[in-house]
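Pasting as-is:
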Amino acid sequence: MADWSLEKMVKKEYRNVEKTLIIPDIHCPYEDKGAVHAVVAFSKEYKPDKIKILGDIVDFYALSKFDKEPDRITGLQKEIDVAQYYLDLIRKSNPKADITLFEGNHEIRLMKYLRKNPEISSLRSIRSADRLLEVSKFNIKYRTNEIHHGILVKHGNVVRKHSAYTAKGEFDNEGTSGISGHTHRLSAHYITNRNGQHAWYEMGHLCDENQAEYMEGKVPNWQKGFGLVEYDKDRKIWRVEQIPIIGDSFIYGSKTYKWRSNQKFEDRDSL
């Protein structure tokens, strides 16, 4: 009789599994400091081979076309400084990882501003968001999108009313499996057709909802979290895991990671 025990069925071999950490919208300097630091601390334990930062790492509030709070409008340099602080922190915490920052709609705010104010566009340091953030200094690539083992990774440009509706919309537009941020929601949409099995994932956010002034008086229908992609190089299969952050904690691998909501981060708070 064949042995169908779990020990016989499971191949306990992890050397050929590539691990990728997915970091969604941070919106510096309006980030959830505890959550972002916790995810970076987690990365040191998880040891990803690759890290994908899904865009909107910076808010560029001062360049927004919307009405602005007077005390925020002069904070452009702080936004850049805080974003560079996290890029440096992510790189130093993961010195061997291949890291990519994707262009989000808030990075595009800079390009729209330059088109409206062409007299300053000749300044080399502000021709694009990646130059302004000096991402190359941290050995980080800057992309609009990328195919990662058959998965399209991008910031995202579809917004639907409910969680997972956007994931379906992105798949309908792109026709392939993918990962995106943008909506600040966690969701997944699965499809099986004659071309096989597919899925699209919305990866949540890591910003501080209380600082989203345009949501004043409302409860944002957002979900905080991040994600992981694991790819078996031998079998050419992948899986995506979404990790929701509930309050000031998340669970992974039967461990709870927790921090204080009022925790101080001296290097960050000094900016």
